[in-house]
Amino acid sequence: MGVRAVFLVGFMASGKSSVGQALARRLDWNFVDLDAEIESRERQTIAEVFRDRGEPEFRLIEAAALRDLTESLERDTVIALGGGTFVHPKNRELLQLWPSVFLDAPVEELWRRSMEDATKRPLRKDPEEFARLYEDRLPFYRQATVTVVTSGKDPASLCAEIERTLQFWEKDEAAGSPQTPSRGFGTGESQ
C-alpha cells in the first residue's frame, strides 16, 4: 500500500486541527493543517486573504494548495481541511482516494467554540448567518467517508473512535469492496 492519508472535514470550530494533531501523534503520522499551509504559502493569514482578495480568490488558492498537498504526500499524514474546502466538488473529487472524516457537533456548540478565536474566522459573523452557513454546508460534509459526533468527547476518545472506524474501512478495501477507494487507512500494525 502507498502513502496513507486521512482528511478531517467539518465546520469551523469542529476540532479538525486539535483532533488531527492528536490523531497524528497517536498513529505516528505527519499532521498538516491546510489553512496553516495556505498562510505559509501566501504569507498572509486566512482572514487577510479574505479581506484583501475575497472569498472566490481564496477558494482558488485553497484548491491549489490541496492539490499540491495530495500530489506531494511522502509520509502517512492526517490533514485538517478548512471549513469550506470539502464543499467544493473538485476538492471532494480530488480526495476520493482517501478516507474523510466529518467531525460533527451541534451548531450552537460550534458557535460557542468559535468565540475564542473569532478574529481568525472571516466567515463568523452573527449566530443566524453562522447557522445558515452550517446548514448550507452540512449536505457536503455528510458525503465524507465517516461521521464522528464530537460533542462531549475529548480528543483522545475521538481519535480512538476514528481509528476503529477507519480500520473497518481498510478491511473493506482489502476485501475488494467495489465502493471503497483505492487507498486505505491503518496504523501499520498487524491486525
**Helix share, percent:** 40-55%
Main sheet characteristics? 5 strands, parallel
Q: Kindly report the CATH topology.
A: Rossmann fold
The CATH superfamily is identified as P-loop containing nucleotide triphosphate hydrolases
CATH architecture designation: 3-Layer(aba) Sandwich
Helix tally equals 8
Strand order of the largest sheet: 2-3-1-4-5
SS-based class: alpha/beta
Work out the radius of gyration. Answer: 16 Å
Q: Count the strands?
A: 5
Q: Give the overall shape, derived from the CA principal axes.
A: globular
What number is the mean pLDDT?
85
**CATH class category name:** Alpha Beta
Cα end-to-end separation: 15 Å
Could you say how many structural domains there are in total?
1
- Assembly state: single chain
Order of helices and strands: EHEHHHEHEHHEH
